[in-house]
Amino acid sequence: EAAINRIAAGEVVERPASAVKELVENALDAGAGRIEVCIADGGKTLIRVTDDGHGIAPEDLPLALSRHATSKIDGTDLLNIHSFGFRGEALPSLGAVGRLKITSRAGAAAGEIVVSGGAHETVRPAALGKGTVVELRDLFYATPARLKFLRTDRAEMQAISDVVKRLAMAEPHVGFTLRDVSGGGEGRVTFRADPETGDMFEALHGRLARILGAEFAENALAIDAEREDIRLTGYAALPTYSRGSAVAQYLFVNGRPVRDKLLIGALRGAYADFLSRDRHPAAALFITCDPHRVDVNVHPAKSEVRFREPGLVRGLIVSALRHALADAGH
Ligand code: ADP
Ligand code: MG
């Protein structure tokens, strides 16, 4: 069992950033209004995610740690629009690759459970005001071969920051703090975004200003288009806005950050007449559609998607962006 867990775990947890992704997604699924991520040594020695969500009842803590016990897969729901989690294997995987401690409060009772090497201890009473604290220490301590493949603390922290910022864009009404606590104590805040207010567009605009800067926000066109029940929303920068050679392309499908060649290609195609090949259009775009029209289970950790109607999606993006650019005088 422990060996199987470890192999499966490697699929979900490739590096500290993938652990952070799973933990922050869980906090979002729990309805958190504020999420704090503390990192030491690029996540290699400590990842701690604290949220103010609905928590886990003490008696449910062992269940949350059993593989697939919480799986929401019913064969059709692979891209649920309302929750990030669906595989029920993140926490068991994290427990197999590091020293995991979960402290949580639901209602009046708070409990704590510790997992090490895939086996968990019994639940103990704990003191916690609200929500959940998940702490993962010494990632890959039992598999030195994997540890060897991790990059420098700085590079791993960069990847963590990228994951947090993408999820912060996906959920502008939620507050996010990322701290580097490598030196101990309170550490240093490396990213902070307070909860945004207003409707979807206002909140996203505020969040993008926070993450990509005021200059992006001032040069961003609001995008809102629909074709055959596939909706495209978000912001795309004017071609005159430049981040040099830096890539600022943030793509989301049904609320999840994704990396997808089709979407990136469509974005490039829309700007083809305005940007030279070495410049990348900057945009944060959200596609919302019926979950049946897109597959997300290509790989648990890679956030790849496969659209059933790629031509339709590409056409929607290219025409919506070209219209917005034309309306803005391009
Ligand atoms: P999944 O998210 O796919 O359901 P996970 O292994 O990530 O699987 O989490 C298992 C379960 O533990 C979740 O379904 C949820 O019920 C509970 N859980 C995990 N993290 C939290 C959290 N931060 N707050 C409340 N419940 C949580
Ligand atoms: Mg999860």
UniProtKB/TrEMBL annotation:
Residues 208-326 form the DNA mismatch repair protein S5 domain. GO terms for biological process: mismatch repair. One of its GO terms (molecular function) is ATP binding. GO terms for cellular component: mismatch repair complex. Keywords: DNA damage, DNA repair. The keyword DNA repair applies. It comes from the Bacteria. Belongs to the DNA mismatch repair MutL/HexB family. This protein is involved in the repair of mismatches in DNA. It is required for dam-dependent methyl-directed DNA mismatch repair. May act as a 'molecular matchmaker', a protein that promotes the formation of a stable complex between two or more DNA-binding proteins in an ATP-dependent manner without itself being part of a final effector complex. This is DNA mismatch repair protein MutL. The chain holds residues 20 to 349 of 605 of the full protein.
